[in-house]
Structure formats: structure tokens, C-alpha cells
Write a structure and sequence with these properties.
The protein contains four helices and 13 strands. It is an alpha+beta fold. The protein folds into two domains: 37 residues; 216 residues, Lipoprotein localisation LolA/LolB/LppX (outer membrane lipoprotein receptor (LolB), chain A, Clam), CATH 2.50.20.
Length: 260
């Protein structure tokens, strides 16, 4: 064929083939990425299994946790009693003073002996922010039936550990973030954004460490709370638990704010 350059034609064919191969490679890489990517449902399911499984978590009706934290250079005893969906009472004993935060499904109170002679009723907006504490196993377990919605934000790092970052919108409207270890699937960090507090919108972080098995369920025995911008009277604190009891009897008097 006059004027036809076979060398150029062959080069063009090679270029087209290379483009096709490159396109196929991109498609395969994308497909592999999607096939290996986990959905938020799968991650939460593995988290629940890592803690002990849905059946064991669902069987928790009450819990008692006792530990110590440091306050003004001294060890302070912390006792937490909870009844699923009904009660959360955190009591602090310094040896010279006593206080508690009491939350029920309808009301809440705070008390500290050096500040007030009787428990003070909690404002409704603050109670609404804290009632998530009534959920002993946490909002991730059975989150759909609880009316929460979950979204996988991506991956992040907490103290050098790769984590899945999950956003949970609670049924009441507040938002929580959870950082779940990509290896162990245990919770390493959470963040609650308070939206109804009288002091305005603020974030509270919790760091979970030193997991140990209690009654077949994994519990963090170190809990550190961080509140960015916290005032001097509410600094970051760490509670180290030395006793955790699953399904103990909860004394009915703990529901009473008069029980000082």
C-alpha cells in the first residue's frame, strides 16, 4: 500500500494495547479495594464478637465497677452501679468528701458534700446528654434496634494503632465517634459531642485501655476521660478499675437522690 508506514501502525497498535492493559489494571485494583473494604455493619459485628458476642452482651442486666482515680494528688475511690436502661450512679469518695452523679430514665441529680447539703436536680438538657450512660454495653451493640445510625468515616490512628473511625448518630440526636482497632476490633477511643448542654456544644473523649475478660466479656480496666477546654475543676482523669461484677443485685436505694 503506497505511503503506508507499517512501523508507525505497529507502534500505534502497541500503544492501544498498553492503554487497554493499563485500564484493566486500574479496574482490577479498584475491584480488589472494594472487595477487601469492610462495611460499617461488618466492623461493628466484629467489634461485638471481640467483646464476647451479642448473646453475652445482651444478657447484661446490671454492672458494678470499682476503681481509683487521682484527684489533687490523692487517690479517690470511684464506684459505678448501673441497671440496663434504668440507672447509672457514679459515686466518688475522697475520704473527706462524697459526691455522685445519678441518672435514671426519667430524671438526674448531682451531689457533692462540700458544695451543697442535698442533691441538685439536673436540668433536662443536661440529662438528655447523659442518658446514653444507661446503656451498659454501649450504643454500638444492636445499634439499629436502638434507633441509632452508623457511618464509616475511614481509618485513623490512636496511640500508634490503626483504627476504623465510625460516626454514630444517636436516636436522641447527639453524635458519637468510635475508634475501633483494625486488629483486635476492640474500642480504643470514643468521642461524644454534647449538643444540649447549657454550657454549649462540647466534645468529651474517652480512651479505653487494659482490656481483661470478666464473665466472658472484654472490659477496659483503664478509662481516661479528656474534655478539651475543660475548666480547672474538671481536668482530664483516668480511672483504673480493680473490680468489675456482671449482673450483681442493684440495691433499690441507689435510685434515690436522698441516699447520700
Amino acid at each position: 500500500m503506497d505511503g503506508f508506514n507499517w512501523t508507525i501502525f505497529k507502534d500505534q497498535i502497541v500503544q492501544v494495547n498498553n492503554l487497554i492493559l493499563f485500564g484493566l489494571l486500574i479496574v482490577l485494583l479498584v475491584a480488589a479495594q472494594f472487595s477487601s473494604a469492610k462495611t460499617v455493619e461488618e466492623i461493628i459485628e466484629k467489634h461485638v464478637r471481640a467483646r464476647g458476642g451479642k448473646n453475652k452482651l445482651g444478657a447484661i442486666e446490671s454492672i458494678y465497677m470499682e476503681g481509683v482515680k487521682e484527684m489533687m494528688g490523692k487517690e479517690v475511690t470511684v464506684k459505678i452501679s448501673k441497671q440496663q436502661g434504668k440507672l447509672s450512679r457514679t459515686a466518688v469518695d475522697t475520704g473527706v468528701a462524697y459526691g455522685f452523679v445519678l441518672i435514671t430514665d426519667t430524671m438526674g441529680w448531682t451531689y457533692f458534700s462540700l458544695r451543697t447539703p442535698a442533691a441538685l436536680e439536673m436540668p433536662e438538657e443536661e440529662l438528655a446528654d447523659l442518658q446514653y450512660e444507661l446503656d451498659i454495653v454501649g450504643p454500638l451493640s444492636e445499634y439499629v434496634s436502638k434507633g441509632h445510625t452508623a457511618e464509616l468515616i475511614g481509618k485513623d490512628t490512636v496511640d500508634g494503632n490503626r483504627c476504623y473511625k465510625i460516626k454514630l448518630t444517636l436516636a436522641g440526636g447527639n453524635e458519637m465517634m468510635f475508634w475501633i482497632d483494625t486488629g483486635t476490633y476492640l474500642l480504643l477511643q470514643s468521642k461524644l459531642t454534647f449538643t444540649k448542654s447549657s454550657s454549649g456544644k462540647k466534645d468529651s473523649y474517652k480512651l479505653y485501655r487494659d482490656y481483661k475478660e470478666v464473665s466472658g466479656i472484654q472490659f477496659a480496666h483503664s478509662l481516661q476521660t479528656k474534655t478539651p477546654g475543660a475548666q480547672q475543676d474538671s481536668p482530664d482523669v483516668e480511672i483504673v478499675f480493680h473490680k468489675i461484677l456482671v449482673n450483681p443485685r442493684i440495691d433499690p436505694v441507689l435510685f434515690l437522690p436522698e441516699q447520700l
